[in-house]
Write a structure and sequence with these properties.
Length: about 300
């Protein structure tokens, strides 16, 4: 899994810039347009939040756990619906930002939670954190299935039978190249180069090998209720993010100045943030990456072994 330092590299280093661009409760995960790209980013994110709550079926007065809660957009939404939200993150910047809004967020590894940590919840949601659960080293060691299976087993213990888990995650797409070819030094704009840039943006992280791997690892503990593909939604989300980051704000200009030392001393920083290439957009357009929303429902008697009829 990506370490706290690696998570902080992406999410804490850019914390103030993100909030000035997206708002204090902005989402750093794909929005939900459902093909209607006339929606604003805020409207599409609100549509996603409403869809999550609808699928979790948690009533007012219930409790929802947000694994990798970002800057608290989902938590703020459920609070507005009369639902108590508890979030966990490994980003110290996100933790502080959520605290500004009175959200209950803890600096914890999402994979380590047990019923003894905060109790059992009516529903669990995770929007993007799954992407960081397996490192490149763990992938090369053949541990990816085990890591995901252990995670789903842990989540199953956090909801009652019939309770739901909403998972949104990027995965590798149908045109993904072999791991050994990914190289930031490859010819500019080649698939290998684009994926190498993404590796610098999200250090310590390796994605699932398609939606099938996610479903297979969840199957002993959860029944798949619904699945949606959000690749085109994510392309539009990234377009909207880029436009917002590009808007002038005098405070952002000052913050960019504070990043000059990072630019001077860190090649990884230069690759990740100032390459001039929207690597994630290109990867989605070329279907090197894909994106899915899964609605899982906990089985009555998860035994750790696959069952028929799922």
């Amino acid at each position: 899994m990506a370490s706290q330092a690696e998570v902080d590299f992406m999410y804490t280093l850019t914390d103030k810039l993100f909030r000035l661009s997206m708002g204090d409760l902005g989402d750093f995960s794909g929005a939900k347009y459902d093909g209607d790209f006339s929606l604003s980013l805020r409207q599409a994110q609100a549509r996603k939040h409403a869809y999550v709550v609808e699928q979790l079926r948690v009533p007012a007065g219930g409790r929802v756990l947000d694994l990798g809660c970002g800057w608290g957009g989902m938590l703020a939404y459920v609070r507005g619906r009369g639902i108590r939200g508890v979030g966990v993150t490994l980003s110290t910047g996100q933790l502080r930002a959520c605290g500004y809004h009175g959200l209950e967020v803890h600096l914890l590894d999402a994979r380590t939670l047990t019923p003894e940590t905060f109790g059992v919840f009516d529903g669990v949601v995770s929007l993007g954190a799954f992407e960081h659960f397996c490192s490149t080293e763990q992938y090369r060691a053949g541990e990816q299935d085990r890591i995901y299976s252990d995670f789903f087993r842990s989540v199953a213990a956090l909801v009652p039978p019939g309770g739901r888990f909403f998972l949104q995650t990027m995965v590798f797409g149908k045109n993904m190249i072999p791991f050994e070819e990914v190289d930031v030094r490859a010819p500019r704009l080649s698939n290998a180069h684009v994926l190498g840039l993404l590796g610098k943006t999200f250090p310590g992280s390796w994605l699932p090998q398609g939606d099938g791997q996610v479903e297979r690892c969840a199957q002993p503990h959860f029944r798949l209720v619904e699945k949606e593909n959000g690749r085109r939604d994510y392309i539009e989300t990234i377009r909207q993010w880029r436009a917002r980051f590009a808007r002038f704000h005098w405070r952002k200009s000052l913050l960019y100045l504070t990043l000059i030392p990072w630019y001077a001393r860190s090649a990884d920083f230069r690759h990740a943030f100032v390459s001039g290439i929207s690597a994630n957009t290109i990867a989605f357009e070329r279907e090197l990456l894909d994106h899915f929303r899964f609605v899982f429902e906990r089985r009555e008697d998860p035994t750790g072994e696959p069952r028929n009829g799922g």
